[in-house]
Each structure stands twice: as structure tokens, then as C-alpha cells.
Amino acid sequence: GRSGLPRAMAALGAYRCIECNGEATELYRDYQRGVLRISICKSCQKPVDKYIEYDPVIILINAVLCKAQAYRHILFNTKINIHGKLCIFCLLCEAYIRWLQLQDSSQNTDPDDLIRYAKEWDFYRMFGIASLEQTSFFIGIFITLWWMTPEMLKGKSDFILLLKALLLSTYGKLLLIPAVIWEHDYTPLCLAFIKVFVLISNSQAIRVTLNLNRILPWFAIFFGLILENGVVCLFQKMGWDV
Questions:
Q1: Domain limits of the chain?
Q2: Membrane-spanning regions, if any (predicted)?
């Protein structure tokens, strides 16, 4: 079906070929009366974006499989503007998981109002810690990429596009909630797999956005994790449960 077809997008905009990452002036040409013709890339001679005729569910499945073509379609050829809300929701999911684990370890069943307020404050604290950790992770990535590929991050728009790609690629954190709801003996293993999946998605987002090889994004993610773990160690030295 054509439910994913971006009809509202102007033909004069700057698009990307999902196969070779080459620039294109249009995704399709509308001959009216329901006749559409997908544009052909001048560089690779393949359709600029085959996903404009795909159902959104198929696009989502391809994105979950971390296909570069699906990432290019989402980042360059659509007007998705949910990265901010998605980031907040993912952080809430992560904060809830940490808060739940903290409550399980406390084993305090006192119904006193003061205890309930303290537990509510713990949730806000976990949200703040998760936010700071993710911010430090992103800062580590930006510093590494800016240092190693300064030509790729020349202006403010480059940084914004990369930030948007990173925020969108953290969608895997939404799996934290069902992993806890369907609690079983392998929950810690599931949480570890979700973490790995999010990192793989981050790597693919960096690679697609900046058109890099496979090694450099992982190098940036490695330094991002170092900075994130440094923040965790700082909180632990302060005596906070993270």
C-alpha cells in the first residue's frame, strides 16, 4: 500500500538515495490521476526511495533489523518530528525500571505518607540520573566524532541532525517495560540484550547520518560509554543508588 507515501513533501526538497546516500531533488513524480513514478538515482541507477510505497509497519520492521536503507528513509526522506517526545518516554521507561529495582531492594512496606513521598522522589531522582547519563553518552559521541571527523560536523545543522538520529535510535528502550511486565528468571539477560540492541541502533544511526564506515561509529560509542560510566561512578561515590 501507499499509506507511508509522503505526499505533503515538496518535490524541490533535498532528499537522499537510500541505496548510495546520493542527493536527489525528488522522491517521485506525480502524473495525477493516481499515476506515480518513483525517481531513479542518477548515481546508482536504483529507485531513490522504495520505502515511499511501503506500509509503515514494513518500514518499522526494517528499522528494527537495522537496515541502513530504512534509516536513511526515516532520517532524510520523511518529516518525523517525534524525537523529543520519544526521548522523554524512553527516559521515563528507564527511570521506572531503576525505580522498580530500587523498591525491590528496599523491602519497606510502611504505608506512612512520608515513605510514599520518598518513593516518589526516588522516581524523579532516577529520571534525572538517566537523563544525565544519556546526555554524557551523547556528549562523548559528539566530542569523538568532532575530533576525528571535523569535516562531517561543520555547522549547527549537522549536530542537530546527528542528535535527532541518536534520539530516534534509542527507541529500543521502549522494550524495557514489557521486559519487566513479563518478569521471569531471564529478565537481567533481556535487559542486557536491550542495551546491546540500542547501541547497535545508535551505531547505525551515526553511520547513516554521517556516511561513515562501520568502525568509527563504534569507536565514538565506546568513548560515549566511558563518559557515561564515569558519571555513574561519580553518583556512586556520592552514595546514590543508580
A1: 15-76, 80-238
A2: 126-147, 159-182, 189-209, 215-235
